[in-house]
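Running low. Invent one:
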Amino acid sequence: MAQLYLRIDDQLKEQADVLFGKLGLNIGIAVNMFLSQAVRESKIPFEIALYPNDADPYFNEKNMARLNEAIQQVKDGKVIVKTMDELLEMEK
C-alpha cells in the first residue's frame, strides 16, 4: 500500500481531526474517501469557486432568465445563423 505525506496547516489538521472524529473517521480514511470519489466521478467531487454560496454576480436572476430565454429560442429554432463573412458584409 502506498503512503502519502502531506504538509498542512496545524490548525486545519486539528479542526479536521475533530470533525472526522465526530464522523467516526480519521484523516487517512477521509483522504481515501475523497480520492475514491474523485476517481469515480472523474472530477473534484465538490464545486470550487471564487464566489462562495453561488454568489457569482454573473449568475444573478436577470442573467439566468436571459440565458434560459436564449436557450429556449435555440430549442425552438428561432435563431439567425450568419457566417463571419456575412457579418462583415453587414458591417459595411
User: Anything to note?
Assistant: The chain has two domains: 1-48, 52-91.
